[in-house]
Design goal:
heterotrimer; A mainly alpha (about 90); B mainly alpha (about 120); C mainly alpha (about 250); A: about 90 residues; mainly alpha; elongated; B: mainly alpha; Helix Hairpins; 4 helices; about 70% helix
């Protein structure tokens, strides 16, 4: 039973990792990465590592995507103000 | 089922590497590096798993009553998850500096600028 | 040129994949019952009255390794602060307060204290239940930023005197070092867990120096994440470059 669960979550993780790499727009990639973070947290919990699951949930699904989003916003804002400059 | 998690970890790592090498945007490359990192977590925790084992936490369980998974690899992974995030932040800060100095985050355009 | 690079990537990737698969087939099978290091770590944790074996590995048996991880964290945050500081050709523009939808505002302000307390709880019970300084620090620090969602950037800046958090970060690092050095003064070794009594198993004060080191890490991670997010938010929201290079 738990073996089947592990296999299913593993394949989901592999799938969303592929999606995160294939998504070339960084803002959308941040969303996929946050989804990947949640799946990894689920995988770690299934593998009986609640400590790691907890930190992955906090870091992978919130902190890293947030940092990427903020960087994207900064670079977009730069691009826009340079266009206005002419 | 016996070795399935290891090739999955290898697959995630190689996918991340492919993304890194073909990326057209440095922020996207940093995201791919985060994918590579998660491959190592999967590998480490898979090495430490034991069939029918439970988490090595004794706040609600008598010691010795059930088989336990390996706590050493969990401790390694745990610290790296948090430290890895701050290293990602450092890389993003470098990308922001590059964008400021050169006005682009495309690695190919950056190479042309230098040459 | 581009095609050459793709070919090189394909060849290298295929070689690496072959090596990795060969290595995977040679690893001990998934879910095997032989974990010599794990068994010894569990025994050592129990002998030192630490209920959460992972906390024992991090802050007792491998406390020296955690010192290294902590230095990486500290150095990375320091690097970010230096790279993202306001440069001479930049200025701060006050962002206009944006209208927040009422349900969002209410939800964020309701969840904020809950999340903050959860983070502190997770730090405090690190040696007993799953959790600890690394996880709880991130939770508490990100919880603070719900204020940005619920109110606006000014409100966040008021409850977040950046200098205090930067000082706390440095203080936490040095308190970890001081706790380690206290071991030497007590006559044993750096970061050896012999300083304090091990206490009653499964209570908050059990585990000798584990709760103290755990609290130091919690403080460091929480203030590090606050400082990091503050600098990224400053860059994304406030700091702008000067325009029109020709004008005086």
């Amino acid at each position: 039973m738990s073996d089947a669960l592990i296999v299913v979550v593993l394949l989901l993780v592999a799938g969303s990792a592929t999606a995160a790499v294939a998504q070339r727009d960084p803002a959308r990639q941040a969303l996929v990465l946050s989804f990947l973070g949640v799946l990894l947290a689920a995988l770690f919990t299934v593998l009986q590592a609640p400590d790691v699951g907890l930190s992955q949930l906090a870091v992978g699904s919130a902190l890293t995507p947030l940092l990427i989003m903020l960087s994207v916003r900064k670079i977009r804002r730069r691009g826009r103000s340079e266009e206005e400059d002419g | 089922m016996h070795v399935l998690p290891y090739p999955v970890a290898a697959y995630i790592f190689l996918t991340g590497c492919y993304g890194l090498a073909t990326s057209r945007n440095l922020i996207h490359a940093v995201g791919c590096l985060a994918v590579c990192q998660s491959a190592t977590y999967v590998l480490l925790l898979a090495v430490g798993y034991r069939d029918g084992g439970t988490a090595p936490v004794f706040s609600d369980m008598k010691p010795g009553s059930r088989p336990l998974v390996d706590p050493v690899v969990q401790a390694l992974t745990l610290t790296d998850v948090v430290v890895g995030a701050t290293v990602t932040a450092l890389l993003l800060a470098l990308v922001l500096q590059i964008a400021k100095r050169h006005g682009t985050v495309d690695p190919d355009e950056l190479r042309e600028l230098r040459g | 040129m581009n095609r050459l690079r793709l070919w090189l990537l394909a060849v290298g990737g295929a070689g690496l994949a072959a090596l990795l698969v060969a290595a995977c087939l040679d690893l001990p099978g998934f879910g095997g019952s032989r974990h010599p290091y794990g068994d010894r770590a569990v025994r050592a944790a129990l002998s030192r009255h630490t209920a959460n074996t992972i906390a024992s590995v991090n802050f007792d048996q491998r406390a020296y390794d955690t010192l290294g991880e902590m230095s990486i964290l500290f150095a990375a945050v320091l690097g970010c602060v230096v790279l993202l500081r306001e440069a001479r050709d930049e200025h701060r523009a006050r962002p206009e307060p944006a209208d927040v939808a009422r349900p969002v505002r209410r939800y964020a302000l309701l969840v904020l204290p809950v999340a903050l307390v959860t983070g502190l709880y997770v730090i405090a019970h690190g040696q007993l239940s799953p959790g600890g300084g690394f996880q709880g620090g991130v939770v508490a620090a990100t919880a603070l930023h719900l204020l940005y969602l619920g109110a606006d950037y000014h409100a966040l800046e008021r409850v977040r005197p950046l200098g205090v958090y930067e000082t706390t970060d440095a203080l936490a690092v040095s308190s970890y070092l001081v706790l380690g050095a206290a071991g030497i003064l007590a006559g044993t070794a750096f970061l050896a867990n012999t300083l304090l009594p091990y206490g009653t198993f499964n209570t908050l004060s059990s585990g000798g120096t584990v709760p103290l080191l755990n609290a130091a890490i919690g403080m460091e991670v929480a203030s590090a994440v606050v400082v990091l997010l503050a600098h990224f938010l400053d860059q994304a929201v406030e700091i702008e470059e000067e325009h029109g290079r020709g004008t005086p």
